[in-house]
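Box 3.1 A note on notation
Throughout this textbook, protein chains are presented in two layers. The first layer is the amino acid sequence; the second is a token string describing backbone geometry. Keep the layers aligned when reading.
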Amino acid sequence: MTCHLSALLTPAAMAEADRLTISAGTPGRVLMQRAGIAVADVAARGTPPGASVAVLCGPGNNGGDGYVAAKVLRERGFRVTVAAAAPPQARASDAVAAADDWGRAPVPLAAWSEDRPAVVVDALYGAGLSRDVAGEEAEVIDAVNASGCRVVAADIASGVDGATGAVRGIAVKAHETVTFFRRKPGHLLMPGRLQCGRVRVADIGISPAVIEALAIRDFANEPDLWGVSLPLPQPDGHKYSRGHAVVVSGGLARTGAARLAARGALRAGAGLVTVASPPEALAVNAAHLTAIMLERMEGADGLAAILADRRKNAVCIGPALGTGEATRALVAEALASGAATVIDADGLTAFQADAEALFAGIHAWPDRPVVLTPHGGEFARLFGPAKGSKLDAARLAAARSGAVVILKGPDTVVASPDGKASIAANAPPWLATAGSGDVLAGFVTGLLAQGMPAFEAASAAVWLHGEAGRAAGIGLIAEDLPEAMPRVFASLPERFAPADEPD
């Protein structure tokens, strides 16, 4: 079943949603009217009565939304100036009609700032922009960004590619963006997300049923996407019914990362967690572990013996293990064990010279849940330079490797081999601290241990990780993240809807 609220529409999918709605009997001009009113509503909020508003209109349908907004704002008593480089193109017939309804000739685009408006409405280009902005429009966007005016963008900040989040030459820096029906990937992917400010989603009368016809593969990473799969404790449950996660420890001086991951797995809900420790690190691990169990492990054969107990159904391997042959052997044993496997950090870098060996090991067990958790550098070592958008790169990597891929960053993308992908936008910048990724790997492992499907487990772990960071606040260290989880879980019942539901 499609997750309607978290679905992200590429510009092509949005165009198809418009087409299906129009063919079902709602005129395009009505959709434009509703879009323009929604933009005007946001522009008017907090703006003093009678204040000046500049509406910058492009030649397409996005400009048509601007003309509608301009007329509505004028009728509400604001002093409105419309600026445009050219009238709407003839093929944008609804925009032509909207310009006619405005009833006044626009001023030249370069003259928009003469009145120092209280608000600038950016209706130059929509999410479907497919070229770099240049010439007069680029100069105007630069002036808007330097003006200090409050900027409200229609659909997306002009200059941002709605499919990729890329800035096409230059882009408006909006304070707020009003988009229509559903958000676009470019609203969440960097750097577009920074250009759009707060994104509001306006209901313009497109039925959610349209989404079923669009074969949506892109989703905002929010509880609406994975909440029904989240394993919450049951009244008749016990620790053995909630899975047993294993985290592989590094050597004597490299044990902390595994303990962070283990604590993350336990706080994510795994019933039991064991740290598999090399003999020389047993004492130091024992000195730090309480609720987490400890088991001696001598190399790959030792890990195989531990995972021979099929109750140990999820394993995290890689944090601080080293990048040599011993780590590659441990990863091979984990993949062959039957346990759901999370490969992180050194477990990925160990295969930089022979990534195909790792991928072959994953493909050999096609029904085994496997999650890879690279940051940008680790991703490049395994998959080479990213091609296309971050969304494209993660999706291609998942298909190539046969694993769910978590491509980390401020806009973490989770991609599945079947093409489904999620984009997270809730990570605070202070999550960028040593050990944070180890905790994330543990969160994924703990959810997999409880039987959550791999894509949903990875997406949920990323979102929970971001929320834990928010709960811990500025100044957090990695150890704070697992301890914030009870507060995050307590908030979940009221968070099963995305932040930007349709107004």
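The chain has a mean pLDDT of 95. The two ends are 23 Å apart (CA to CA).
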